[in-house]
TrEMBL record, chain A:
It comes from Streptosporangium sandarakinum. Part of the phosphoribosylformylglycinamidine synthase complex involved in the purines biosynthetic pathway. Catalyzes the ATP-dependent conversion of formylglycinamide ribonucleotide (FGAR) and glutamine to yield formylglycinamidine ribonucleotide (FGAM) and glutamate. The FGAM synthase complex is composed of three subunits. PurQ produces an ammonia molecule by converting glutamine to glutamate. PurL transfers the ammonia molecule to FGAR to form FGAM in an ATP-dependent manner. Pathway: Purine metabolism; IMP biosynthesis via de novo pathway; 5-amino-1-(5-phospho-D-ribosyl)imidazole from N(2)-formyl-N(1)-(5-phospho-D-ribosyl)glycinamide: step 1/2. This is Phosphoribosylformylglycinamidine synthase subunit PurQ. It comes from the Bacteria. CDD domains: GATase1_FGAR_AT. InterPro entries: Class_I_gatase-like, PRibForGlyAmidine_synth_PurQ.
UniProtKB/TrEMBL annotation, chain B:
The gene is purS. Belongs to the PurS family. Part of the phosphoribosylformylglycinamidine synthase complex involved in the purines biosynthetic pathway. Catalyzes the ATP-dependent conversion of formylglycinamide ribonucleotide (FGAR) and glutamine to yield formylglycinamidine ribonucleotide (FGAM) and glutamate. The FGAM synthase complex is composed of three subunits. PurQ produces an ammonia molecule by converting glutamine to glutamate. PurL transfers the ammonia molecule to FGAR to form FGAM in an ATP-dependent manner. This is Phosphoribosylformylglycinamidine synthase subunit PurS. It comes from Streptosporangium pseudovulgare. Gene3D superfamilies: Phosphoribosylformylglycinamidine synthase subunit PurS (3.30.1280.10). The keyword ATP-binding applies.
């Protein structure tokens, strides 16, 4: 049986694509590089939108990337059920593309934050989080200046009522996110975005605070193998 | 060339952390009497032709699509110079 193929997107200014690809391979999958200017998903089974500063965060984080040629393919595929995970800048891009509701704004304290963060898993009903248990606390690195999740009151209520809050900051809220939200999913559950970085927490060797990030990759690979 | 201005501001209910930081800095610099500051973006759009109804409809579409994120921001379109 051939390995499940997870696409990893690179925009100009993406930083974490190499770590994401490595994490996919570490979990036993095949990482397929996808290029922003090439409107071709190469038949992948899932897509990882990594973090960084695509297009230098010009205009708004993710605002330019959202219109990249690759996104013209990715947006309808995601709406049709393709599993997509966006971390950090990837989460911002998913919000700008309206694949996820709400927006990510400048941290309440204005500072760029780089630290290890406790995060509580609130939902395992996504293809990216099935290997966790609900209520489980994990530790992942965060590194962002614009991670404050905001949405209007009706959207926020709908997210909470529908179990679409997938991750919440535990301990302290680093950026002023509404309802301590660290990550959310769409209604169907196939699209997940979060500010913390699972791809930086898969190997002890790199000095990661944990290997809790492995759960994301083992979840998606199990899902793809069992399809 | 006709020139159209698009002002983009955060919606009133959205916390403007940068505006607050600016407001807090002003008294330290000797500027008193400022109740609050909100920070936004100004786009100056130069048109090839006149700023007629069709062109303004286009600018509004630009604002909706790219210049503003209407989840968190409002925009106002004003004509600074109508004729080319």
């Amino acid at each position: 049986m051939s390995a499940a193929r997870v696409g990893v997107v690179t925009f100009p200014g993406t930083l974490d694509d190499q770590d994401a690809a490595r994490a996919v391979r570490h979990a036993g999958g095949e990482a397929v590089p996808l290029w922003h200017a090439d409107p071709d998903l190469k038949g992948v089974d899932a897509v990882f939108l990594p973090g960084g500063f695509s297009y230098g965060d010009y205009l708004r984080c993710g605002a330019i990337s959202r219109f990249a040629p690759l996104m013209e393919e990715l947006i309808p595929a995601a709406r049709a059920g393709l599993p997509v995970l966006g971390t950090c800048n990837g989460f911002q891009i998913l919000c700008e593309a309206h694949l996820l509701p709400g927006a990510l704004m400048r941290n309440a304290g204005l500072h760029y934050i780089c630290r290890d963060q406790r995060v509580r898993v609130e939902s395992t009903a996504t293809p990216w989080t099935s290997d966790f248990t609900e209520g489980q606390e994990i530790v992942l690195p965060i590194k962002h200046g614009e991670g404050r999740y905001v949405a209007d009151a009706a959207t926020l209520a709908a997210l909470e009522a529908g179990g679409q809050v997938v991750f919440r900051y535990a301990g302290s809220n680093p950026n002023g996110s509404m309802n301590d939200i660290a990550g959310i999913r769409n209604e169907a559950g196939n699209i997940v975005g979060l500010m913390p970085h699972p791809e930086h927490a898969v190997e002890d060797l790199t000095g990661a605070p944990s290997t809790d990030g492995r759960g994301f990759f083992s979840s998606i690979l199990k899902r793809l193998v069992n399809l | 060339m006709a020139r159209v201005i698009v002002d983009v501001m955060l919606k009133p209910e959205i916390l403007d952390a940068q505006g607050q930081a600016i407001a807090r800095a002003l008294p330290r610099l000797g500027f008193s009497g400022v109740a609050s500051v909100r920070q936004g973006k100004r786009f100056e759009v130069e048109l090839d032709g006149p700023a007629d109804d069709a062109a303004l409809a286009d600018v509004r579409k630009m604002a909706e699509t790219l210049l503003a994120n209407t989840v968190i921001e409002d925009y106002i379109v004003t004509v600074e110079r109508a004729e080319s």
